[in-house]
Design a protein that fits this description.
InterPro entries: Tet_transcr_reg_TetR-rel_C_sf. The chain is mostly helical. The protein has helices at about 1-20, 35-50.
Length: about 50
Amino acid sequence: MAMLTASRFTVGSVLEEQAGPDPELPPGMPGIDHETAFEAGLALILGGLTSG
């Protein structure tokens, strides 16, 4: 199940990156690049898996 989750997350992330520029963010909301968002997402998935 973990490999399926990581695989789907990876494919979704790539599709979002290829879709084009991010939409306009509301004032005061910081932007985040795709690489940072991807790494943070994987960290969340792995953290959830290791916590049991």
